[in-house]
Amino acid sequence: MVAVDMPDQVLAKMNRELELRHRDEQRGYLGASGIGAECERRIWNSFHWVTKEKMQARSIKAIADGYHSEGVMSERLKMVGDIKLFTHNGDGNQFGFEDGHLRGHLDGLIEGVGQEPHKTHVWEHKCVNVDKFNKMMKAKIEHTEGGALEHWDLQYYAQAQVYMHYFKLEWHYMTICTPGSRDETSCLTGYNKDAANYYCKERPQRIINADRPPARISSNPAWFQCKMCSHGGNCHDEKLPQINCRTCLHSTPLPDGEWMCGFHTKTITVDEQRAACGEHLFNPHLMPGQQTDAGDGWIEYTLDNGKVIRNENAKVKTISTGSR
């Protein structure tokens, strides 16, 4: 007889509370940890705060596992006599960089590892499930250690190249563990100038300068990456974007990391961007249906079912329900 795990109402309530209490403020910048995501549209949508992601309890727990295991690994590495690991700078802050809208914070800097132990390496730590952990072990055999990270997880590889570029370092040392920090491995990756240029300059600039979302990674909403993406409803369905300055047609990201409001002719702070104003009008490229009419301070759209909606004064209202 197969054992069936009966739902526990106490744990179900606990998970609901975990989700309700979780606060994950949307980043005001392009993060180094996400610039390597396969879907460029997803990066653009996140940068423009198109959707507020509601995290599930399992994801919240996974993030907590990551933070906890990073601390555990840090303390364990520091026990090794010839290892020097620095997780914070002299001011007590994380090591980080800012280059306009692209920013990042790394886990630490480490000496005493790799092929050139006298040199400083970027240190990053990842906590992954057993299946992904085993795939790393396989990647190191099939692609050698130097090529393993790129074939194992392109997003982590991009992050590594970005950090090496901005800290002017030649090596990246990643430690990887399973939840509970019982199994661990490492991966040493060298600096790649072409990859760094792509992820530090070419791709970020293309995303920042785009006035509309890039092409979808798939036209099929059931595609596995689309199903897991918080922006799926905006890309494939008729879900409306969030109201904030970054979804407004009047706003533009500037090269120096600021945002400009064309309506009020001024730069706008992150708090102002979150709040938006009464003159907000959605970027038409984010709206479902086709733009069919417009006037002073308003735009109308006709959806595929014939329904007509009007965007005006930071609101969307139905003008007609359609006949199809």
Distance between the termini: 52 Å
List segments where confidence is low: pLDDT < 50 over at least 5 consecutive residues.
none
3D shape: globular
Strand ordering within the main sheet: 2-5-6-7-8
Which structural class best describes the helix and strand composition? alpha+beta
CATH architecture of the largest domain: Alpha-Beta Complex
> How would you name the oligomeric state of the polypeptide chains in this document?
single chain
Give the CATH level 1 class of the largest domain. Answer: Alpha Beta
Name the beta content range. Answer: 15-25%
Structurally, the number of domains stands at 2
Q: What is the radius of gyration computed over CA atoms, rounded to a whole number of angstroms?
A: 23 Å
Largest sheet: 5 strands, mixed
On the 0-100 scale, what is the average pLDDT?
92
Stated plainly, the CATH topology of the largest domain is called Lambda Exonuclease, Chain A
Number of helices, counting only DSSP H or I runs of 4 residues or more: 9
Give the tally of β-strands: 15
| Run of helices and strands | HEHHEEEEEHHEEHHHEEEHEEEE
